[in-house]
Write a structure and sequence with these properties.
The complex is a heterodimer of chains A (447) and B (189).
Chain A lengths: L4 E5 L3 H13 L3 E5 L2 H10 L4 E5 L7 H11 L4 E6 L4 H9 L4 E4 L4 H31 L1 E2 L2 E2 L3 H15 L4 E4 L6 H11 L7 E5 L5 H9 E2 L11 E2 L1 H4 L4 E5 L6 H13 L1 E2 L8 E2 L3 E6 L3 H7 L4 H7 L2 E4 L10 H16 L5 E2 L1 H9 L5 H15 L4 E2 L20 H15 L4 H8 L3 H10 L7
Parallel strand pairs in A: 1-2, 1-3, 3-4, 4-5, 8-15, 8-16, 9-12, 12-15, 17-18
Antiparallel strand pairs in A: 6-7, 10-11, 13-14
Helix pairs in contact in A: 2-3, 6-7, 13-15, 16-17, 17-18
Chain B lengths: L11 E6 L4 H15 L3 E3 L10 E2 L4 E3 H9 L8 E6 L3 E3 L2 E4 L1 E3 L5 E5 L14 H19 L18 H6 L6 H15 L1
Parallel strand pairs in B: 1-2, 1-5, 4-6, 5-9
Antiparallel strand pairs in B: 3-4, 6-7, 8-9
Classes of the chains: A alpha/beta (447), B alpha/beta (189).
Chain lengths: 447, 189
């Protein structure tokens, strides 16, 4: 078990030393800070379970330090200590989140009981965090993460769809995790011991795509010196995942339709029938019915693909999942990059929930990776994610203060989809003031 | 306990500070020798340093006494235990029965509060000496880097008050006994 870490913050050397000495004899790992600034630096370097904090210090007063600790390191319990003790001081500190207080000098029994009580409290807090983490685990389905009703519904649908062998068409915006859903269907299906073969149909030219899908024979016709199995053949007994199926050229749609109907095909340049046995899952970010209207997608092929349709929700429709996903990616990138990032602050999570995420989960993943790599402190804060809201060139235009205010209110209103209460909360003004400003600047509320 | 501890870094020097009483010193020495197999020399008395006095609290800072003992030029005695009749405290605590440098050279114990019984009554001399021996063993064990023990019956349990001190036995728990043996072997090389 990790040793309990305690930080003693007091400018008086004798107080610091005697408290450190006593706590060390209890077997705790104890360090001392001679002032508030030093303490904040030390808190940046490592987590502490408990901090003893003096009220009066020359460089920073204890209440100020308490505010920093409670704002940035809420898991650290704080005991205020004072020699100048007054009930008012203690009450103020408790209101600001101090967990207890002591007046110097304390009775030996009082100190012992207080430390025991607080460490018990800390244990409960840590257990709660663990339970939360375990609850978050339950929001995982294969590699998909989501506690929101729409994701829970999706997990249920995957479970049902996996049991049958019918083709599935996944619809969702870029970055929503279509391939992960396809993999989850495969992993839950009776074909899970067979291969999962993905192909991004939008990533190949027409001739290459044909060769990739159907394979080819050696010979003069193909110009190939060696025969090659295509993805269709490779997916025997498993699942073939056609990503960006809307990008498949019309001619090849006919060939694929034939494969789906007849369960056989020829390699390019070959004339031997190859039998196939796979489950087809395809995905698109396009509205294929519109593509049919435009004449670039075959209706009969569409009907073949779309026996079961699953829509994957965009991230903006499941903003309650953003903290879960952010923490998941943070954990992953922290391990991958070995950056000393311990967590993400509430203000940062709120900011992430405000953003629209046009690139969906992939964009969130990239944003977290970027902030972890560039992180300056041990915790990611709202400031680290400001880049999401910055449009290029915005800073270059000189503006008046009034212009800036108008622009800022307009942007927050858009971010909040016209929700006045939410926008007023972020702007830290009341609703009436916001209404007055909207009228003054003649702003439009778009929902 | 094995015999090795007897050689662990040389004899412990028992330093009378003020008027702890001749018998108190002999009892402390006997218990240290018996329990820790540590040879003990009773050294010449020394005054408690003046700077240890807390005028406002009319007590003596055990931390200052420890520093004073720790710096004494007594090379034959790698460990020193001060025994005093004066009331000890540390800046953060209203009183202490004793204090020690964790893994260091010096420890100090006070007889001042150890006679107290229920209300204004005093405990028997037998109980008083038993208390003194417990505090002395506890503090000296700290100099061998032993922490406080969670076993409420062990000599290394923290006793914030006399009733708690009376509840513990005059014995180390198996774990502390083992740690003490390891630590003293390490010191004795």
């Amino acid at each position: 078990m990790a040793r309990i870490k305690i930080l003693v913050i007091d400018d008086e050397l004798i107080v610091r030393e005697s408290l450190i000495g006593w706590l060390k004899k209890e077997g705790y790992e104890v360090r001392g800070a001679e002032g508030g600034r030093r303490a904040l630096e030390m808190l940046k370097e490592q987590d502490y379970d408990l901090a003893f904090l003096d009220f009066k210090m020359p460089d920073m007063n204890g209440i100020e330090v308490l505010g920093h600790i409670k704002g940035s390191y809420p898991q650290t319990l704080v005991v205020m200590i004072t020699a100048y003790g007054s009930v008012e001081n203690a009450v103020e500190a408790m209101k600001l989140g101090a967990n207890d207080y002591l007046m110097k000098p304390f009775e030996p029994e009082q100190l012992m009981l207080l430390v025991e009580k607080l460490l018990q409290q800390k244990k409960i807090i840590d257990e709660n965090l663990l339970l939360k983490a375990q609850a978050a685990e339950q929001t995982r389905y294969q590699d998909l993460i989501g506690a929101s009703p729409c994701m829970q519904e999706l997990f249920g649908l995957i479970e049902e769809v996996a049991r049958v062998d019918s083709p599935v068409l996944l619809r969702g915006e870029t970055g929503t995790g279509k391939e992960l859903v396809a993999k989850a269907i495969h992993a839950k299906s009776p074909r899970r011991y067979g291969p999962f073969i993905p192909i991004n149909c939008g990533a190949f030219s027409e001739s290459l795509l044909e060769s990739e899908l159907f394979g080819h024979e050696t010979g003069d016709f193909t110009g190939a010196t060696r025969g090659k199995k295509g993805r269709i053949e490779m997916s025997r007994g498993g699942t073939l995942f056609l990503d960006e199926v809307g990008e498949i050229p019309l001619k090849m749609q006919v060939d694929l339709l034939r494969v789906l109907q007849e369960k056989t095909f020829h390699r390019v340049g070959g004339n031997t029938n190859v039998e196939v046995d796979f489950r087809l899952v395809s995905a698109t970010h396009r509205d294929l019915t519109k593509e049919i209207e435009r004449g670039v997608f075959r209706q009969d092929f569409y009907f073949r693909l779309n026996v079961i349709e699953i829509e994957i929700p965009p991230l903006r429709r499941r903003e309650e999942d953003i903290p879960l996903l952010a923490r998941h990616f943070l954990e992953r990138f922290r391990r991958e990059t070995n950056q000393p990032v311990a967590g993400i602050r509430e203000d940062a999570l709120k900011m992430l929930q405000l953003y629209d995420w046009p690139g969906n989960v992939r964009e969130l993943e990239n944003a977290i990776e970027r902030t972890v790599v560039l992180a300056k402190g041990r915790y990611l804060t709202g400031e680290d994610f400001e880049f999401l809201f910055r449009s290029s060139g915005e800073e270059a235009i000189p503006r008046s203060l009034q212009d800036m205010e108008k622009h800022h209110i307009d942007r927050i209103l858009k971010l909040c989809h016209g929700n006045i209460s939410k926008a007023a909360g972020i702007l830290e003004i009341n609703r009436t003031t916001l209404h007055n400003k909207i009228k003054k600047y003649n702003l439009r509320i778009s929902r | 306990m094995d015999e090795k501890r007897a050689d662990a870094g040389g004899p412990l020097g028992l330093v009378p500070m003020g008027r702890p009483g001749e018998l108190a010193l002999r009892i402390v020495a006997a218990n240290l020798q018996g329990m820790l197999r540590l040879p003990v020399d009773i050294l010449s008395p020394l005054e408690v340093p003046e700077e240890a006095f807390f005028p406002r609290r009319r007590q003596y800072d055990a931390g200052v006494i420890l520093r004073y003992l720790g710096e004494l030029d007594l090379p034959a005695h790698p460990r020193l235990l001060g025994v005093t009749h004066l009331d000890l405290c540390i800046p953060i605590l209203t009183y202490v029965f004793g204090e020690a440098q964790l893994g260091g050279r010096a420890a100090v114990v006070s007889t001042f509060r150890l006679r107290q019984g229920q209300g204004k009554a005093q405990v028997s001399m037998e109980r008083f000496y038993e208390r003194l021996a417990k505090v002395a063993l506890h503090e000296v064990a700290h100099t061998f880097s032993l922490y406080h023990c969670e076993n409420a019956r062990c000599l290394m349990a923290f006793s914030p008050a006399l009733d708690r001190l009376d509840e513990i036995g005059l014995v180390f728990c198996d774990r502390c006994e083992y740690m003490l043996r390891q630590a003293s072997q390490g010191v004795g090389g």
